[in-house]
Write a structure and sequence with these properties.
Blueprint: H1 3-7, H2 14-26, E1 35-36, H3 37-44, H4 48-60, E2 64-67, E3 70-73, H5 75-83, H6 85-105, E4 108-115, E5 118-125, E6 140-142, H7 147-153, H8 158-166, H9 180-193, E7 196-199, E8 206-214, E9 220-229, H10 235-254
Antiparallel strand pairs: 1-3, 2-3, 4-5, 4-9, 5-6, 7-8, 8-9
Helix pairs in contact: 2-3, 2-4, 3-4, 6-10
Amino acid sequence: MCPEERAGLDASSPTSVVLRMAAVLDAFDAGDVYLGVNELARRAQIPNSTVSRLLKDMERAGFIERRGNKVGLGLRLFEWGERASRRRSLREVALPFMADLREATHQTIHLAVLDGVEVVYVEILHSKNTPWLPSQVGGRLPAHATGVGKALLAAAPAEVVEQAIATGLPRVGPRTLRNAKLLKQQLGRVASTGIAYEIQESAHGVVCVAAAITDVEGRAVAAVSASGWAGKVDIRRVAPAVRTAALSISRVIAS
């Protein structure tokens, strides 16, 4: 949620309460355990007094827990996360194939799903001697700037692609594709070949090849990729292994 949306929320609206709670929860980064009220308010761009009131209800609901003057994410959120069975089962099915793909390619392997016009990383198997990557488990990146994202956008409804273009295709890496016409052309090739490539579009020195994973109805539900150093890995030679992994995961999901 952008700062402008947060600033314009009506405190009397039930919907705004939910959005404000979401903003407070979103304020926790991956490495955070406990944060103070002032820091939460600063990150969520919500007044301190409002955050304090929200935290009282959130604590009663089990969304947060207190430690002295600071708060952390509560057990209720963990329980809800465990109930997100689709992503958990997807990860469980994909992990053995991802491990085999890493062993075969010696590259870092990603599993991601599409949420709106962003990809969310469900699992990452890092490999030695691979470049720094902007991805992290549970993290997000704009779909147009990643291999997994392009694999999923190519299979998505046209309106999703238009929504991605409407964001202005922000730059993420030095070669992020920002031209709508070129993006559509590339997505067309991905749709026909089943393979998506990324060349330093998400980060300097990173190349990637990805393929979509489909369910029993043939819908793209996730994507798997292999990422490595530009100039050191021939992603076109890696592509068949990535495609095979995606097809293998798809067959198990569909069975």
